[in-house]
Amino acid sequence: MKYLLKLDRNVFTLLLAVIIIGGTQTNLFGQVRTSPTYEKPDKRKVLFPKTKFNAQAAKKALERGNGKIIGKACVYMNKRFYRPRGVRVSLYPATPYIREFFELRKKHSSKKTIVKFSDRAYKTRIDTRTNNRGEFQFTDMKPGNYIVYMAFDFNEIRYRREKAGSAVGVYGRTNVYRNKKYTIPRRRVFEENVQLKKDGETKKITLKRGYSGVFKTGC
Fold first, then answer.
1. CB neighbourhood size of 26 (10 A)
2. What is the rounded CA–CA span in Å between residue 188 and residue 209?
3. What is the number of alpha carbons within 13 Å of residue 80 lying toward its C-beta?
4. Residue 190: CB partners within 8 Å, gap ≥ 6?
5. Binning pLDDT at 50, 70 and 90, where does residue 163 land?
6. How far is CA 75 from the centre of its chain?
7. Which of 118, 120, 123, 126 lies closest to 147 in space, CA to CA?
8. How does pLDDT run across 181-209, given as a tens digit for each residue?
9. Contact 137, 151 (CB under 8 A)
10. Helix and strand tally (H, E) in the chain?
11. What is the pTM of this model?
12. Which residues contact 59 (CB under 8 A, 6 or more apart)?
């Protein structure tokens, strides 16, 4: 009996040692204790469009038609093209409310101010995604005015010279250098107004950022 009691105590001690790990303490009754986290409150000023959102008109503007919007997107930086792959592209009906929202974004978006619009307006849209060449399209569109929106996050590729070592030659020791690759996170936002004037029309657009001279041949 004493031997069993001693064995049970050893097992219990081993269980406690396994359970208490990495600063997180769990007891046999399922409680978990962790260090409290603090989330810094967002103190930015929030702006909303003053125009009333007409949900019925916005939904009607997205009814099916026979038109098509075909687009492609790219960014040109430091002699290199970056094309969005699998990135979401959204199309909004250009109602007064949504127009005001995008105008407010251009004028007031900053580190101290954020511009938002209602959940109903945000959900009244059509989404698609770019292919591996940065191409996208919206089909079955009726005549009207639309706003195409895309936020493209990517890593800009750069190189810098760094010392890799040294070598001894005829003229003595010289330093050896190499190009080291590194990346810089970037974001480019595209907003394009598109108008389909008649049913069945196909409109081609290009969303681009960078040196304009290289876009003569397109993205």
1. 14
2. 8
3. 9
4. 73, 148, 149, 150, 151, 152, 207, 209
5. confident
6. 15
7. 126
8. 889 999 999 999 999 999 999 999 999 98
9. no
10. 4, 12
11. 0.72
12. 124
